[in-house]
């Protein structure tokens, strides 16, 4: 049922975003990927998506720049024909205590992890209303529901995404558009790998201890969530079976927030 639809996925040159793009392409969805990275690696990923038999395009919009975001949505409509599915996924992390937290990291995390979703939704919702169908999926986090020390900006942004998800869901409830947030626990991606040294420094423990005693300590299954598991939930949310699921924060966190 998703064949021929089009999706814009922010922050999809790596990790969970790339897994969303692959899973949707496997369902016949044309995809626009976005994010940073070496041009040759992005082109290899784009070709890999096209090899799944769909149209795949790359847009380099910086999620801190509202004008580039507006242009990205307009380009997706022009080149893919529609924006049926929007996945707000771009995100960064910085770990530091409140007294040391750099102002520029606060601003960047709020811009990329929260404000970018406001701007994409603002431009995509009118297109979805016009088409009479739409799916918006926000990658939130277990940190949309609970907090951890050293992550003030990330936790604030993800709690903000929860509010944005619920509000846009209510505003589009009669338009055959659903808006939901997926709240993963720790997923093994470059974002998690990169925060291990800082967490070790903040807490005064080794990197191995961070992995096993801090990250997986929060996750009762003692296993990292996989990017494929997160992507399969997103594909389900795009189906007709999920048409009545809107405004929800769906946990996939190995029991963390239970
Ligand atoms: P990742 O670092 O692998 O991917 C992040 C993506 O965002 C990359 O494609 C990167 O290029 C892109 N990006 C960063 N800054 C950008 C900007 N200014 N403009 C456009 N793109 C930008 O990380 P990931 O773990 O796959 O994270 C993806 C999302 O999942 C994030 O929102 C993150 O908060 C969330 N999340 C991750 C985990 C986890 O454990 N990995 C858990 C819960 C939620």
UniProtKB/TrEMBL annotation:
<dbReference type="GO" id="GO:0032787">
    <property type="term" value="P:monocarboxylic acid metabolic process"/>
</dbReference>
<protein>
    <submittedName>
        <fullName>3-hydroxybutyrate dehydrogenase</fullName>
    </submittedName>
</protein>
<dbReference type="InterPro" id="IPR002347">
    <property type="entry name" value="SDR_fam"/>
</dbReference>
<comment type="similarity">
    <text>Belongs to the short-chain dehydrogenases/reductases (SDR) family.</text>
</comment>
<dbReference type="InterPro" id="IPR011294">
    <property type="entry name" value="3-OHbutyrate_DH"/>
</dbReference>
<dbReference type="InterPro" id="IPR050259">
    <property type="entry name" value="SDR"/>
</dbReference>
<dbReference type="InterPro" id="IPR020904">
    <property type="entry name" value="Sc_DH/Rdtase_CS"/>
</dbReference>
<dbReference type="InterPro" id="IPR036291">
    <property type="entry name" value="NAD(P)-bd_dom_sf"/>
</dbReference>
<dbReference type="GO" id="GO:0003858">
    <property type="term" value="F:3-hydroxybutyrate dehydrogenase activity"/>
</dbReference>
<dbReference type="Pfam" id="PF00106">
    <property type="entry name" value="adh_short"/>
</dbReference>
């Amino acid at each position: 049922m998703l064949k021929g639809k089009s999706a814009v996925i922010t922050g999809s040159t790596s990790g969970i975003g790339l897994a969303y793009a692959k899973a949707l392409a496997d369902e016949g969805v044309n995809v626009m990927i976005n994010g940073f990275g070496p041009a040759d690696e992005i082109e290899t990923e784009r070709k890999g998506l096209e090899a799944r038999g769909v149209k795949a395009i790359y847009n380099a919009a910086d999620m801190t720049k509202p004008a580039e975001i507006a242009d990205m949505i307009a380009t997706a409509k022009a080149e893919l024909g529609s924006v049926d599915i929007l996945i707000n996924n771009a995100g960064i992390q910085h770990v530091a205590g409140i007294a040391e937290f750099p102002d520029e990291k606060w601003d960047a995390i709020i811009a990329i992890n929260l404000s970018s979703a406001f701007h994409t939704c603002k431009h995509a919702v009118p297109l979805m209303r016009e088409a009479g169908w739409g799916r918006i999926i926000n990658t939130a986090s277990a940190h949309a529901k609970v907090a951890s020390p050293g992550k003030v900006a990330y936790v604030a942004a993800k709690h903000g995404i929860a509010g944005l998800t619920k509000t846009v869901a209510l505003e589009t409830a009669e338009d055959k558009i659903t808006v939901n947030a997926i709240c993963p626990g720790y997923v093994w991606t470059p974002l998690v790998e990169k925060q291990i040294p800082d967490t070790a420094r903040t807490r005064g423990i080794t990197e191995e201890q961070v992995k096993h005693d801090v990250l997986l300590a929060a996750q009762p299954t003692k296993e990292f969530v996989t990017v494929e598991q997160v992507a399969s939930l997103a594909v389900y949310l795009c189906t007709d079976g999920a048409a009545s699921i809107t405004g929800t924060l769906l946990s996939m966190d190995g029991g963390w927030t239970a």
